[in-house]
Amino acid sequence: MDPVTSGILIVVALMVLMAIGTPIAFALGSVSLGALVLNRGMGELTYFGETFYGSLASFSFVAIPMFILMGAAVASSPTGRDLYRSLDLWLGRVPGGLAISNIGACSIFAALSGSSPATSAAIGKLGIPEMRKRGYPDGVAAGCIAAGGTLGILIPPSVTMIVYGISTETSIGRLFIAGAVPGVMLALLFMAWTLIACKLAGGYNAPNPVAEAAAQVKQNVEGNLKALVRVLPFLVVVTGILFALYGGVATPSEAAGAGAFLCLALAIVVYRMWRAKPLKIIMRDALRESVMIMLIIAAAEIFAYALSSMFITQTVAGAIADLEVNRWVLMGIINVFLLVAGFFLPPVAVIVMTAPILLPIILAADFDPYWFAVVLTINLEIGLITPPVGLNLFIIKGIAPDIALRDVLLGSLPYALCMVLGIVLLCFFPGIATWLPDLLMN
Amino acid sequence: MAHTSSHTLLPNRGVIGAYIRMMDVISGATAVLASVALAAGVLAVCHMIFVRYALGQSTTWQTEFTVFTITGAMLLGAPYVLMTGGHVAVTVLPDAIGGWLRKAMLLAASLVGLGFCIALSYGAWLYVLEAWHGGWTTGTVWNPPLWPALLPMAIGASLLSLQYIAEIIRGEANHGSSH
Amino acid sequence: SAETVLRASHQFPGGKGDVRDEMVQLMAKEVEAANVDLKIQVYPGQSLFDAKEQWGALVRGRLDMTALPLDYASGRHPEFSATLMPGLVRNHERAQRLNDSEFMDMIKQVINDAGAKVLADAWLAGGFASSKQCITSPDTVQGQAMRAAGPAFDEMLATAGASIASMPSSEIYTAMQTGVLDGANTSSGSFVSYRIYEQVDCLTAPGENALWFMYEPILISQQSWDRLNEEQQKALTEAGQKAEEYFAGEAAALDQKMIDVFKENGVEVVSMSQEDYEAWLKIAKESSYKTFAENVPNGQALIDAALAVE
Ligand code: NA
Ligand code: NA
Predict the structure, then answer these.
(1) How many CB pairs under 8 A join B and C?
(2) Could you tell me which of C29, C65, C54 has the C-alpha nearest to residue C224?
(3) Residue A137, CA distances (Å) to A191, A198, C30 in order
(4) What are the pLDDT tens digits along chain A (442 aa)?
(5) Do C71 and B137 touch (CB under 8 A)?
(6) Minimum distance, in Å, between the CA of residue A310 and any CA atom of chain B
């Protein structure tokens, strides 16, 4: 069977397995294993232990569970609450201020955590009920948390940038920095839309009269200042860790290990979480998310191995490279492809499976691999808030099960369009992604 | 992940109920082990940083140790994540169809997942035994035997298979898709 | 009859002039030209198997061919550590004589027993680089933080008073930049491709008395070999011979290229003298050779056989 036919059959089998509800990791794994056994014989089953272990066991990959543990230490402690309160202190009275604080809190939290669902969960747990209490439309409340949370993988540190760096042999430190300015840009775009959405909805109908609100603000100021004091040490630690990483003082895994340890220690000291129960919650959350992600990565690696083994990757990449279309048409096609892949698959899986095909094409068309990493990440962020697989949507559903899925989706859609606008801006002004790394690293 | 693990139709009597309860306990216990391994990996990295930067001495075992403990933690934690519905799945289509077809689709999905886990267990044990019999080491400066690093994968994959059977019996193998 | 396709995997960049990639590509061309219904499909840059997984895949017949630093498989066959043993080779001329020695017969016996076969020999030279002090005699590494290249080198360096940090070769650059490492030892090719010249003040080039040599042969799985007909086997053997000759011509040029690049970047270039080499050999005999002899069944015999070569 020729590589293209095999490739199509594999993709169809994968879609069928995913459609009937097979967990993504197992669907990827069984399709790959099935293809390998059919193509190369039962021997592949015999070596499967070695193949699977080899796909996971590297010092670069272990950075991912450690960054997730760092995020969990912050997310499962009251840091999210405090961060939220500190921002509310400044922005609470601006029209739409609460929704803007939420996006701000998501951006700052994104700098503390490498993952998007964790960011949505940490800020959303408090933010969504609070916004609804103060009369914000359900769609805006859900949408701004779902979208704000996606910044978790763009603003450094980022789990997906680590995977991209490993798959493409690019510098993870440089990838991290490349995401910083685009991350801030997206946060500003989100805020701009939120203001417009609130105006369109006729402002937010705050249920509490102005006088009452003023009294409450006065009462809150002291508490909010204390909250700020509690959050600061975390920000200092994480900033230090990231600077060590950017400066090349530490490898991503060293930075992740030190970050996880320090944030865990801070959670214990600042919030007195030394008892077994809160520690158990931190470890449980970290384990659940990292196991989910790492199994998908391992399965996606085997999928990539199966495709390469059957010469499918090389054939497809060769065919695309021979297209000889305008490089921007090529970039457009790649974006549509990534967008569609992002609808169905979590970001890490898309990167592991497609980076080996896409990177040579990107380089041949003379695009910057770090700039492309940012474009790729924003595409995958859109996938986080679109059905059928939108990790952030699952989080919102968990926090506020009574908001109708339709409202969540409609509320998130404009933010997805903000991200498309972000990609367009990046295409016109590549400097948004490349300026900071050039400044800091060259 | 959003999940509401509502173990409603738990058949709590007889051998089957006992099996499900036993698996839940074992998966919970290996999750504790996995947490300890994850923490040990983090501590080893911190130890390496301290020894290398503060003391300026040789660091030979920490990198490998971290890879082994954290990779092991991921596989030991997998049964617990299955039990609590953490492995992401898309159940939009079966949920939209409903009825017996939904049940059939989800059962087929679970059987595919179970098949994968059994294949992985088989491959993993084979690899452990080969490494054990061959006296394989990692061939690095530290050069420890390889099999203890592989054992968590074999145990984790086996328990994952057994937990999958428990989930199928529990009749709601569509965990983690509660959206 | 249908064409037989052999899958060849290696870890080196493809199509960019890396000598090991060139060797495999040359064999692919030769075999094609021989017109014996045989094709070699090359998977460069770990696009099929990770570097360290290749040996296992090869001996089980999952992978047909590979260009492999043999020491990577020393976890399964401790004898292979002898192919990255300090001071055992010394220079390119001696490497040529070593290829036809009893020492290599013993190594190739282990390779054959495991289920693989050598098609082309290649010994790559390497050196030392430091940002602190030129590394020549053993006392020059005292107090330097060095990167671990393999157990045998580490033991010798540690015995001489260096401190060792283990990390992947891709991290050498960063580690030197930040002062985690003062010195490193690796192959001439890696020194250039990892741009180490930007971080160091002194390079110890291989010259006549090199400590660092690594055996990176082109191997074929015995199972794949047995599936070929006589004509195909003959074509492959001849292609291997051509690749080996090509490498012999390139080996010294690789070292010269490293020297040129480092000099262009203002790095001082030295090499070890006869006395330096003897002093290192004395330390190696007390440390890494001794450990090797103790831990590997025929370890002492292997070392004796290698040192016996003129
Ligand atoms: Na982040
Ligand atoms: Na999606």
Answers:
(1) 50
(2) C65
(3) 15, 8, 71
(4) 788 999 999 999 999 999 999 999 999 999 999 999 999 899 899 999 999 999 999 888 898 999 899 988 888 788 877 877 777 766 666 667 788 888 988 998 888 888 888 888 888 887 888 888 878 888 889 999 999 999 999 999 899 999 998 888 888 888 999 999 999 999 999 999 988 888 787 655 444 444 445 555 555 667 777 778 888 888 888 888 877 777 667 778 888 999 999 999 998 888 887 788 888 999 999 999 999 999 999 999 999 999 999 989 888 888 887 877 888 999 999 999 999 999 888 899 899 888 878 888 898 889 999 999 999 999 999 999 988 878 888 888 888 888 888 889 999 999 999 999 999 999 999 999 999 988 876 6
(5) no
(6) 20
Residue C118: φ, ψ to 5°: -85, 130
Answer whether C178 touches A (CB < 8 Å).
yes
Which backbone phi and psi does A133 adopt, to 5 degrees? Answer: -60, -40
Which domain does B101 fall in, by range?
7-176
Q: Write out B36-65 in H/E/C secondary structure.
A: HHHHHHHHHHHHHHHHHHHHCCCECCHHHH
Q: Least CB-CB distance to B122: which of A45, A250, A395?
A: A45
CA of A123 to the centre of ligand 1 (A): 14
As given in the structure block, the two tokens for residue A322 are 């021979």
SS3 C309: coil
Residues B174 and B91: their CA atoms lie apart, in Å, by 8
State the pairing for strand pair C202-205/C123-130: antiparallel
Domain ranges of chain A: 3-32+59-441
**Among B84, B113, B119, beta carbon nearest to A45:** B119
* Dist. CA C69–CA C81, nearest whole Å: 11
Neighbours of chain A (3+ CB pairs under 8 A): B, C
Whether C119 contacts chain A with CB within 8 A: no
Amino acid identity at A93: R
Chain C residues with CB under 8 Å of A44 CB are 62
For chain B, the domain total comes to: 1
Are C126 and C206 within 8 A, CB to CB? Answer: yes
**β pairing state of C116-120 and C202-205:** unpaired
Separation of alpha carbons A238 and A235, rounded Å: 5
**Is-contact A135 A207, C-beta < 8 A?**
yes
Q: Is residue B1 part of a domain?
A: no
Q: By C-alpha distance, which of A141, A146, A172 is closest to A61?
A: A172
> Phi-psi category of A96—alpha, beta or left, where left has phi over 0 and alpha has psi -120 to 50?
left
Residues of chain C neighbouring B134 (CB-CB closer than 8 A): 76
Q: Is residue B153 part of a domain?
A: yes
Name the residue with tokens 């009920």: A129
- Closest listed ligand to the CA of A179: 1
Domain membership of residue B38 (yes or no) is yes
